[in-house]
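Following up on my earlier thread - several people asked me to post the actual chain instead of describing it. Fair enough. Here it is, all 120 residues.
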Amino acid sequence: MLTERELQISPIVQESVLHNTKTLTTLHNLTASLFGVGAGILGLESYLGFVFYLVFSLITSALVYAFRVRPGLIQESHDPGKSSMERYFRSSIELWTGGLFEGLSGFVLTWTLFYGLVRA
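Reply from S.P.:
Thanks for posting it. Predicted structure:
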């Protein structure tokens, strides 16, 4: 957590944090539909389909962390208070599980649609 002095020197803009959250949620919603297409075409059923969604959603979050968040943390590592994930998101949990439940309905819809189209 940043101290008051650090926030005065380099304030965190809440609008930017909110924008990052919305962008991540949109990404999870779009990829959830793509994962549903993949699970339907592969013919996955029951728990295997949900495990497929969970694994690939976590991979998506890991890729966002690796290519977007981590380089920003490395560049700002010379400032001790700025190397926190809270500069980009409200918490680190939000990065990993933020869009997990929001994208679930889109996943299930496209999963059942493409499963029905392939198996018909």
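The helical segments are 4-9, 14-42, 47-75, 92-97, 104-119. That should answer part of your original question.
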